[in-house]
Write a structure and sequence with these properties.
Layout lengths: L1 H22 L5 E7 L7 E7 L5 E3 L3 H9 L1
Antiparallel strand pairs: 1-2, 2-3
Length: 70
């Protein structure tokens, strides 16, 4: 019963996050290292919105090099 309650809370929170990300205009973004997917241990570089934390793009190789060397 406790697990079912937590799963329901997670579903509600995930929906709320999705709604916020869909409404965001993504004006400010940064390159960040993020997991390829939830189950993965592989990290990749992506442009991430600073406000809503959604992936908004894939940085070019020169952008990644600049990010790593800063």
């Amino acid at each position: 019963k406790k697990v079912a309650s937590l799963i329901e809370k997670k579903r509600i929170i995930s929906k709320e996050i999705e709604d916020l990300q869909n409404k965001c205009v993504h004006l400010n973004k940064s390159i960040k290292s993020t997991k390829e997917n939830e189950a993965s241990s592989t990290f990749i570089f992506r442009w991430i919105c600073n406000e809503c934390e959604v992936v908004v793009g894939i940085p070019s190789e020169p952008e990644i090099i600049k990010y790593i060397n800063r």
